[in-house]
Amino acid sequence: MAGAGAVGPRPRPLLLLGPTGSGRSTLLFRAALVGASVVSSARVLFLAPRPLERLPGGKAAGAGAIQRIHFLYPASFQELLQLVASLHQTLSSSSSMIVLDGLEEYLNNCSSPCTAAQLVALLLDTSNYFSQKRSHLSVGCQLIVSMKFPGEAGEEAEHFSAIEHYFPAHLWLHPDTGVDIGLDNQGLTKLIRAHLLQPGTKDQEWMVKFDAQGSMTISPLPCKNETENDTVSGNRPSVSEADATVPSSQS
């Protein structure tokens, strides 16, 4: 656009993938909280088929962060499509993050892979629009979308094939026992291994831990090569505790 100022770094669109019960919604909401806590001008748009059963908090929730998250619950694919197409006109302030939870539920009512791709393209266009609006700031608008693992055949696989290339960064969530890092006997109710894949960077992994009270903590794991080297030398790699959020997928 002629005369426009230089746009700050644009975070890579991130697709969060995991099976049912892998904590996708909790992780996504934590990302929204952190995104809303970075600066006072941050504004996060959280889209989902329905409200979360409870709002996870924790240390990631800065003072007033929840007030800077705008929740919208479009009930159908068509309603979501129309909403996204009009966001640049209806939102009074530019968003620093757009989060969409439960994409697979919307795609269940999607007529074709082409229409699914249209939705994601609109989300990207909207994210780019808000990045341009935030050109005076240091960072653009992040887009994070979550969906359940697609099936290997049928409409789910076709829809996934139509949209996955729009997301340079993929964060895969896998249930884990924690045996290999000594977390199998710590009273945790759920362990999820998060594996980040994005072009041009090393793969990264985190362990997402849920205790009996439902609290979530995230610990970085050594990269695969480091783990292999430590195994050869007979040393178990240590895991440092960190109250973190979805890993940054910024370019």
TrEMBL record:
Q: Which domain of life is it from?
A: Eukaryota
- Molecular function (Gene Ontology), one example: single-stranded DNA binding
- Gene Ontology biological process terms from the UniProt entry: double-strand break repair via homologous recombination
GO cellular component labels = Shu complex
**SUPFAM superfamilies in the cross-refs:** P-loop containing nucleoside triphosphate hydrolases (SSF52540)
Give the region (Disordered) as residue ranges: 219-251
* Name the UniProt record assigns to this protein: ATPase SWSAP1 isoform X1
